[in-house]
Amino acid sequence: MGSSHAHRKLACLATSLGSSRLMPFTLGLNTRVIISSHPDTAREILCGSSFSDRPIKESARALMFERAIGFAPSGKYWSQLRRIAANHMFSPRRISSLESLRQRVANDMIKNVQFEMNERNMVELKWILKKGSLNNVLESVFGSNLGVEGEKLGSMVEEGYELISEFNWADYIPLKFVDFSGVKKRCHKLAGQVNCLIGRIIKERKKEGNVNTKNDFLSVCLSLPKEDQLSDADLVAVLWEMVFRGTDTVAILLEWIMARMVLHQDVQAKAQKEIDTCVGQGRHVQDSDIPNLPYLQAIVKEVLRLHPPGPLLSWARLAIHDVHVDKFLVPAGTTAMVNMWAITHDPTIWKDPWAFQPERFIKEEVSIMGSDLRLAPFGSGRRVCPGRVLGLTTVQLWLARLLQEFKWSPLISSSQQVDLSECLKLSLEMKNPLVCCAVNRVHVLPN
């Protein structure tokens, strides 16, 4: 479980034991686990009320996530958070209102790509995508990128990812007084820094007043009716989670997509032809164009199938009472996982599962929003990712802008070719950053 390929190893183990539908095992001394590598049992786990809670690691608890949407236990408080998020952060109207921000960030990323090509004749996309994603989420949550404070918060996110993705035996061995690798100490220190920084931002915003006239999530939360207001401590946890979960996921997925574009020049050319036909060369791609770009949408789906950002660890659920799954009794307190990577690479479910073929999603409509458990990258059921539509909207627009502006190709040097090796941390990342070339295709007039 501490391996960077745990999803692959567990998939192989389930196949060899004939336990793809359900495989039980134990972590540490007393942590019972079941894992599903099949859509049927995955649906029972993710969509049933019996697994409505998440097990929370020591690092996640120390980093305040048990008071945020992702890990808060089901109940009145969790329902309140989901309602606030659905109505004020991820509503269709809210997502639409943020298009101008997404376009500005896309413009900045394109300028950074051009700068890198002029200076180095190559582009390492990872830092450009991460910077763009961070600025995008900071402005949507706080109304600005916060300048120096935003950079500090970005560094805190990086450290938080490192801490929460680290396999910690303290989560599975009842020796709470032992701090393996100093993880607990580092988490408490980081939580203090987050509390101080975000707490100060909240206090300053309250002093400014006029929160009803602003569109960022913090202002919206401060302007809620009294009965829906969150305490400052809970608001810090919610805002921190928004930044934490909203920064890396988009950047990681886009890097995988662009790696595939560099490797599959025919697919890239077909997507660019679709964009040129639909949009033309006189303006930038807009959100309203995306429904008319089915092949581009198919590319995103195929990358989500081959490289699901949360292949395993993001899917953990906790049985809140005894329950039967696939006719087997699962005791209360059991951790349940879904190996989405195993499902999306199963040859009995997908034809040629290792091949990169976006066309498969042109031939067959497959929803990725949680209703079809053959491909549910954002989860399903009550704990489905609340920001899935916003994330997908952002990825599709930025991908379209990058393909409209540049032709992407591999470097000439054989030592810097595209490497699809994986590294499972909190998300499934590229082990080695994508380095490639980008050449301007056409001069696109500003909107």
From TrEMBL:
> Is Heme among the key words of this record?
yes
Task: Give GO terms: molecular function aspect only.
Answer: metal ion binding; monooxygenase activity
Chain segments annotated as coiled-coil in the UniProt record? none
Q: Keyword Oxidoreductase on this protein?
A: yes
> Mind telling me which InterPro entries this protein's record contains?
Cyt_P450, Cyt_P450_CS, Cyt_P450_E_grp-I, Cyt_P450_sf, Cytochrome_P450_78A
Q: Which Pfam families match?
A: p450 (PF00067)
- The residues that hold heme are 385
Q: Which Gene3D superfamilies match?
A: Cytochrome P450
Q: Which cofactor does it need?
A: heme
This protein's superkingdom? Answer: Eukaryota
Please give the PROSITE patterns that the UniProt record associates with this protein.
Answer: CYTOCHROME_P450
Please report which protein family the annotation says this sequence is part of.
Belongs to the cytochrome P450 family.
Q: What is this protein's name?
A: Cytochrome P450
The species this protein belongs to is Cinchona calisaya
